Amino acid sequence: MFSLRAFNTFGIEAEARQFVEISSIDQYVALRTSGEYAHLPHLFLGGGSNVLLTQAQEALIVKISIPGISVVKEDADFVWLKGGAGVVWDEFVQYAVNHGWSGLENLSLIPGTVGAAPMQNIGAYGAEIKDTFDSLEALNLQTLAIEVFDAKACAFGYRESFFKRAGKGLYLIGSVTFKLSKKPSVKTSYGAIQEVLATKGITQPSIRDVADAVIEIRKSKLPDPKEIGNSGSFFKNPTVSASEASRLMAEFPGIPNYPVEGSTEVKFPAGWFIEKAGWKGFRRGDAGVHAKQALVLVNYGEATGAEILALSEEIKQSIKDTFGVSLETEVNIL
């Protein structure tokens, strides 16, 4: 058996029956066609930043370590930047920022890999993957043929995509390409970005200024997985109908809310509900809710995945009972 503790940011101790690491799609095809692992189901693992391991894994764990960052096309206004699925997401973002190409700076310091980013349609501080996504290459696990997906085929939604729904378990993403602007236009209106910039006296921020502000905010709010095991935001921010939003705003004056672009629905911060329900800073054994950010569940050392999961279910029920709002987990439970 193989320990997965070092391969998930929660730092959960869980064992895998078999473990391999690949650095190319061809390696995986060779692995599949060799017959050695044909009898086992396969489970792909990127940075391990969006999973909660609750039991021993009978599947073959395939660690995706496909490298590479390259410009595949450019014109006077845009550059198309491609990253291998195993590239650390923030390294990819900082590569773009350092070259003066905008579009990803608000997504600085999000844990995980390039390959996992479109699966989750990761987002933060007013930006999402879908805003700059161009295409991705993925291996069809049934035909072993490479297929190219554009944004429409990915069916992006709020922390959702084709790969989490109809295409779940059917593809292995090998690389992702983003269309970034050579003429930067920054987004500073969401969250505390403007406040951080103001304290620094920055009135005309560059994309580097925005990236640095986001990094500063995330470091102040979110625990470092190297110090306290966690997977970042454990729950999605709930989106509700206009009538339900009106009820919440009437019952709870001052509740933060954000209109959903192109919709009558309204998004509310899950962390607000969790904090108001009294869970912020809660701890039972080594499983807990972070003291600074209620949206983050943490492993203080030796918590099991089952203990973290049980705590998350208690929180969800509490929010349902108190506010009439259903929370969904953002983390994949394995």
From TrEMBL:
**Which cofactor is essential here?**
FAD
What does the record give as the active site? R159, S233, E330
PROSITE patterns named among the record's database cross-references = FAD_PCMH
GO BP terms: namely: cell division; cell wall organization; peptidoglycan biosynthetic process; regulation of cell shape
Instruction: State the InterPro entries in the record.
Output: FAD-bd_PCMH, FAD-bd_PCMH-like_sf, FAD-bd_PCMH_sub1, FAD-bd_PCMH_sub2, MurB, MurB_C, MurB_C_sf, Oxid_FAD_bind_N
Xref: Pfam families: FAD_binding_4, MurB_C
Alphabetical UniProt keywords: Cell cycle, Cell division, Cell shape, Cell wall biogenesis/degradation, Cytoplasm, FAD, Flavoprotein, NADP, Oxidoreductase, Peptidoglycan synthesis
State its Enzyme Commission number(s): 1.3.1.98
Q: Where does the FAD-binding PCMH-type domain start and stop, copy by copy?
A: 12-183
Q: In which pathway does it act?
A: Cell wall biogenesis; peptidoglycan biosynthesis
Reactions mediated catalytically: UDP-N-acetyl-alpha-D-muramate + NADP(+) = UDP-N-acetyl-3-O-(1-carboxyvinyl)-alpha-D-glucosamine + NADPH + H(+)
**Protein name per its UniProtKB record:** UDP-N-acetylenolpyruvoylglucosamine reductase
Q: What is the lineage of its organism?
A: Bacteria, Pseudomonadati, Bacteroidota, Cytophagia, Cytophagales
Chain's gene name? murB
